[in-house]
Design a protein that fits this description.
Layout (H helix, E strand, L loop, with lengths): L1 H33 L6 H8 L1 H4 L20 H10 L13 H10 L7
Bound molecules: heme C.
The site of heme C (HEC) has 25 residues, from helix 2, helix 3 and helix 4.
């Protein structure tokens, strides 16, 4: 019984530290993005876009467009991501211009040709 308690306490501690760790990493990433370094479009996509578009762009949650079938140019995608469209939220206050461009470029990887 006592051992269980210790185990749970330790597990809690590890979880708590894990959370702090990932937040720290997030802050570090945000710092990197503001530097000249090229943002990672895949990382940004997985952080901000999978909730609606899904890992492969075709999940369609809240009516999200199937990105595998998008015919938009890079400029047009950048505009949609920046300003939002209908149910899609704008990302201009969340992501830098470079990050938006990187994630817009990443959406082209879903296209099957
Ligand atoms: C809240 C859910 C939601 C999130 C989060 C979201 N989208 Fe969307 N997205 C949508 C919806 C809904 C549409 C269709 C908008 C419409 O009907 O006009 C859309 C449309 C798009 C389009 C236009 C496709 C086309 O061909 O018309 C692109 C590109 C796009 N999203 C990329 C992204 C990227 C990149 C992210 C992450 C930075 C993202 N979306 C995050 C819901 C979302």
């Amino acid at each position: 019984m006592k051992q269980w308690f210790i185990f749970l306490a330790l597990a809690g501690l590890v979880l708590a530290c894990g959370n702090v760790g990932s937040q720290g990493q997030f802050a570090a990433n945000a710092g990197n993005a503001s530097e000249a370094q090229r943002p990672n479009g895949e990382k940004i996509y997985k952080q901000y876009c999978v909730t609606c578009h899904g890992l492969y762009g075709d999940m369609g949650a809240s009516g999200a467009f199937n990105l595998q079938e998008s015919q938009l140019s890079l400029e047009e995608r950048t505009a949609v991501i920046t300003n939002g469209r209908n149910a899609m939220t704008p990302f201009q206050s969340l992501l830098s211009k470079k990050e938006i461009k990187a994630v817009a470029e990443y959406t082209f990887t879903f296209q099957e040709d």
